[in-house]
Amino acid sequence: MHWQKDAQCGQARAGWLHTRHGSVPTPTFMPVGTVGTVKGITMDNVRATGAGIVLGNTYHLMLRPTAERVQRLGGLHRMMDWPGPILTDSGGFQVMSLGPLRKMDEDGVTFRSHIDGSSHRLTPESSTDIQYKLDATITMAFDECPALPATKDVLEASMERSMRWAARSREAFIARPGYGQFGIVQGGTEQDLRERSALALRKIGFEGYAIGGLAVGEGQELMFSTLDYTTPMLPEDQPRYLMGVGTPDDLLGAVMRGCDMFDCVMPSRAGRTARAYTERGTLNLRNARFAEDTRPISPEDDSPMAGRYSRAYLHHLFRANEMLGPMLLTLHNLAYYQRLMRQIRAAIVAGTLEQTAAELRQNWAKGDWSEDEWPMPRYQQG
Amino acid sequence: MHWQKDAQCGQARAGWLHTRHGSVPTPTFMPVGTVGTVKGITMDNVRATGAGIVLGNTYHLMLRPTAERVQRLGGLHRMMDWPGPILTDSGGFQVMSLGPLRKMDEDGVTFRSHIDGSSHRLTPESSTDIQYKLDATITMAFDECPALPATKDVLEASMERSMRWAARSREAFIARPGYGQFGIVQGGTEQDLRERSALALRKIGFEGYAIGGLAVGEGQELMFSTLDYTTPMLPEDQPRYLMGVGTPDDLLGAVMRGCDMFDCVMPSRAGRTARAYTERGTLNLRNARFAEDTRPISPEDDSPMAGRYSRAYLHHLFRANEMLGPMLLTLHNLAYYQRLMRQIRAAIVAGTLEQTAAELRQNWAKGDWSEDEWPMPRYQQG
After folding, report:
1. Res B382: pLDDT
2. Residue B145 has what pLDDT?
3. CA neighbor of A146 nearest in space, from A196, A204, A189
4. B135, B250, B260, B263: which one is catalytic?
5. B interface residues, A as partner, C-beta within 8 Å
6. Dihedral in degrees, nearest 10, Cα atoms A254, A260, A266, A270
7. Angle at which helices A324-350 and A248-255 pack, to 10 degrees?
8. Which candidate, B1, B35, B42, places its Cα nearest to that of B237?
């Protein structure tokens, strides 16, 4: 695995991530394929949105269908019919969020399955082994991710344990050409802890570095200020992945602070609940004002559904609880996220990111296109 | 609208249905797009299965989003992004099945919406007008469809009312080039009633003739024997549509008795509940025996998903309640139905339908392919 930088604009970087399973332009947004499927969309359509890499969840996959079964089925790529790169998380973050269902010790975490209550254990070694069995292109180090706000003592102890776990994860990782493993910087919103964490990880040495423990309730301002000092601690020539982020505005701000990779359930989850992302902010398509709106969601859509479905039709599908509503809107939202990343990347290459960012933010704030602003002719029956 | 016969084999006919919205080879199976969407599948994929014409439900569409709104959105074709022909039912059958929620009189039916309890009325005139507003390529006459078994008196009175309603439906129909209207033969399983019904309809004159009031609980044997005497009562040079039918074996038997068009929710509904149609009968993909079955559903699949997804993956998707399970299996089942119709049509043209029918039935009875019979190599991870 190798990341190559094409251009830089301020802190923002445009590059290519080359892997065993293909190359991906960065910055890149990774749709979340929790349990071996991106909910509500075929992998053909995920590809058609322009996505180059998707994410899988170790926690979900180890429970069902189990890592061993995925391996026997030929790995995650073969199983879900996605030949491109796949990044899997380590399970650490999701096990954390089980609350009273999990017990942590120095060696790892014991937890109960949310499906059937059965007992399971994750350690740096077993998490790495599971990701190997899934055939993850990018394996994540197993870490502990404390909820914010937390006292500095708690953050420090947690970060130090995560660094010991990172070393054990690296030890357990089986290097293969075109595959890689990322370490995860922890330390909450404490600069000195982030510094120590980044140093510890660089000393171990990974193919890329993730920033964890953010977007867990601290707010965008604190997230951005943490990124401001954290990304410069990471190697210039390797990819940086901001985990679990975020809104279009979060992504833009994080790219401008030097992050290259992102994942979030937001666009797909919103798609299942009638919320559409557009160049003009979000629209709730269940809203009565869309009942006879013959316009497509966005005039700038260039996805496979561009110009084909009216807002009124989508409104109808959601009102009638038809599966096609979530299916189409998931496609739309993932396509919007990919379009945004392409736009940002082009601006980095052109050296005009500041200007593009100002325009993007201005348009998000404007709200839905008025009739006068709508740039396409509107056809009616007749 | 015009139906052209290409070949005949026994009673079975191969032809083309030419319409304003394109031409469709017959015999043809019409996927059911209840409320402006075939559940769980995009119209692109409906087309990719080989389907040439789809069905819409007047009852569902008049309630939501309403015929007037569909008209304002440019008609059903534009609204659902299906440029091909659409047949709409008249609402009569579905209103019937509302039971105590409906009240029938000579002029029409008053009923309460299953959605919000609001009161609505359907008459031959309003049903025909609704189908006009939906822009149906093929409009169905409004009829009454009694449940079987029923006394002959009940069947006779109902059939006679349906024939009066058929005349009123024809009167209300606005003829347009490439559009058409079908009358519906009623009379239950009584030969003389079917005879009188067919004569009455032919006297009115339609672009095609449907056989209604079957597949309502009478069993396949009685359905077939009714078809045996009913199809010869219908014009040789016009299409015949057997409504609401059925299993692959039902379709085969009905084609061999001279029917050309079919619709049924079976393949799409089965797809949502993990039941797969194959050349070897049906498989329930939730069954544990598929958990590690790396074979695709059928080696004869030629749909867009052919060879891409293992039974084990589909099993996993259904067990995990992932939307992609119903999505993929709906596609698979609709593709199987279309493949079956193509196979039957080719056999009619080749004059070998009897032999093909025997082979099809023999294979359905065999059950799932054994390992030895499986005609494709099986690859495992290596």
Report:
1. 42
2. 87
3. A189
4. B263
5. 35-37, 39-42, 44, 64-65, 69, 71-75, 78-81, 291-292, 294, 304, 308-310, 312-313, 316-317, 319-320, 322-324, 326-328, 379-381
6. 100
7. 20
8. B1
Note if A263 is an active site residue. Answer: yes
A90 is in an annotated binding site: yes
- Averaged over A16-23, what is the pLDDT? 98
By C-alpha distance, which of A163, A161, A151 is closest to A188? A151
Whether A132 and A174 have beta carbons less than 8 Å apart is answered as yes
Please give the backbone phi and psi of residue A2, each rounded to the nearest 5 degrees, phi first: -155, 135
Contact A312 B69 (CB under 8 A): yes
pTM of the model: 0.97
C-alpha distances (whole Å) from B344 to each of B227, B257, B280 are 18, 13, 16
Average pLDDT over residues B320-324: 98
- Indicate if ipTM > 0.85: yes
Pick among B37, B80, B135, B317 to test the A interface (most A CBs inside 10 A): B37
C-alpha pair distances (Å), B155 with each of A168, A267, B111, B152, B200: 79, 55, 22, 5, 15
| Interacting residues of B263 by C-beta distance below 8 A, sequence separation 6+ | B29, B30, B31, B32, B55, B87, B241, B243, B244, B245
- Cα angle for residues A267, A270, A275 (degrees, 5° grid): 115
Residue A381 is predicted with a pLDDT of 46
Percent of chain B residues topping a pLDDT of 90? 93
A127-141, A160-174, B366-380: segment of lowest average pLDDT: B366-380
Pick from A272, A279, A282, A373: which is nearest to A324 by CA? A272
Strand partners, B337: none
Decide if B348 contacts B8 (C-beta within 8 A).
yes
Nearest residue, CB atoms, B322 vs list A35, A74, A78: A35
Q: For chain B, which domains are there?
A: 2-264 (3.20.20.105), 270-380 (no CATH)
CA gap A86, A74 in Å, rounded: 14
Q: Using 50, 70 and 90 to split pLDDT, how confident is the model at A382?
A: very low
Q: What mean pLDDT do residues A253-277 have? A: 98
Parallel, antiparallel, or unpaired for β B86-88 and B138-140?
parallel
Spatial contact of A88 and A161, defined as CB atoms under 8 Å apart: no
Averaged pLDDT for residues B106-120: 95
pLDDT for the residue numbered B96: 87
Name the residue among B71, B73, B324 with its Cβ closest to that of A310: B73
Q: Tell me the two tokens of residue B259.
A: 């029917």
pLDDT at B380 over 70: no
A146: Cβ–Cβ under 8 A, 6 or more apart, which residues?
A96, A154, A155, A158, A186, A188, A213
A379 band by pLDDT with thresholds 50, 70 and 90: low
Which residues in B lie closer than 8 A to residue A79 (C-beta atoms)? 310, 312-313, 316
Residues B234, B236, B240, B245: what is their CA dihedral angle, to the nearest 10 degrees? 90
CB B293 within 8 A of CB B312: yes
Residue B176 in this model has a pLDDT that exceeds 60: yes
Q: How far apart (Å, rounded) are the C-alpha atoms in residues B363 and B346?
A: 18
Q: Which residue has the tokens 């659409």?
A: B86
Beta partners for A122?
Answer: A109
Q: What is the pLDDT of residue A267?
A: 98
Answer whether residue B98 shows pLDDT above 70: yes
Q: How far apart are CA B12 and CA B260, in angstroms?
A: 8
The secondary structure element, H or E, covering residue B28 is strand B28-30
Q: How many residues does chain B have?
A: 382
Other beta carbons less than 10 A from residue A151's beta carbon? 10
